[in-house]
Structure prediction request, 340 residues.
Amino acid sequence: MKIAFFDTKPYDVRYFEEYGKKMGIEYKFFETKLCEDTVELAQGYDGVCVFVNDTVNAAVIDRLCEFGAQVIALRCAGFNNVDVKHAFGKIHVLRVPAYSPYAVAEHAMALLLTSIRRIHKAYIRSRDYNFSLSGLTGFDLHGKTVGVIGTGRIGRVFIDICRGFGMKVLAYDKYPASIEGVEYVELDRLFSESDIISLHCPLTDDTYHIIDAESLERCRRGVVIINTSRGALVDAEALLGAIKSRKVGAACLDVYEEESDLFFEDKSGHIMDDEVLARLISMPNVIVTSHQAFLTEEALENIAQTTTSNIAGFFEMKQCPNELCWRGSSAEDCRDGKCF
Ligand code: NAD
Prediction:
């Protein structure tokens, strides 16, 4: 099987080559992202392997189908960049539903601690032999209320971590589960009672800008916003406004609405055209990492293993438990009632 692999980074190659050899998949690594301009590279391949910022819209899907590609293998959990409705019945979309919820949840907590204990400031100061503590006062997490939006795999690990710190947890999920000791509340209450809000839901029409000027208005003064999920969950301009007005005490962002042409690339030495991002990064109480939360050795290995076995299993048996949409032609054939 030959798979065109888009948006390749050096850390992908090691793991995907290893698992490709083991499972009989030949990956051709392209550094460019998949989009309408680059889809021609996929000609002659049985499928494509894509990541979070590849564009898999209707035009790209149609072209892939014309080339005879059979699978779009996402090497990530989120699939908001794939027009899954358009793909239905035409091409199979596989994903990696879970590879290390710990990687993302631990990164969310790392960002939170860094920001509220001013570790990012202290690190720079002490490298300069400036051992002053002025301006570095933080606050205890113990006893604080954290609002968790989305209590799936990552949200639950994050909840466990927060409880380890002695925090009270309020949760909101469109499909609440029963998690011992976790109180599900309406969004209104979560916004008004949380000291910290962490986003762990997918990006959908429902969740687009779930943090916007209106929801921020309902939050406590000094609230800390953590987003390790998808950039467009947060209206970045509204967030910037709320930081300027001191409503938001700190923001920890691993994802950004307009990240696709910036994150994962070395842009140092370039003029930053994105004024909102530039302003956010300039704030002392904002920490931005560039979609790094997944990046642990364990996660990379799991991603390569699951993606490759998804592809191998699909070509062997023409089905895959990690297919996003069942291959039937009607909703009745849908697995788990989750068909699009
Ligand atoms: P998951 O599917 O296990 O959990 C998502 C949860 O969100 C589910 O409980 C679901 O019911 C809930 N949900 C769905 N619609 C909702 C809505 N409208 N409002 C509130 N909750 C809703 O997914 P996961 O593995 O926990 O991943 C969560 C998100 O994290 C992914 O969608 C992805 O965008 C993001 N992610 C980011 C990184 C990173 O590196 N920054 C890595 C992996 C995943």
Remarks:
- The first helix runs from residue 10 to 23.
- The chain has a mean pLDDT of 93.
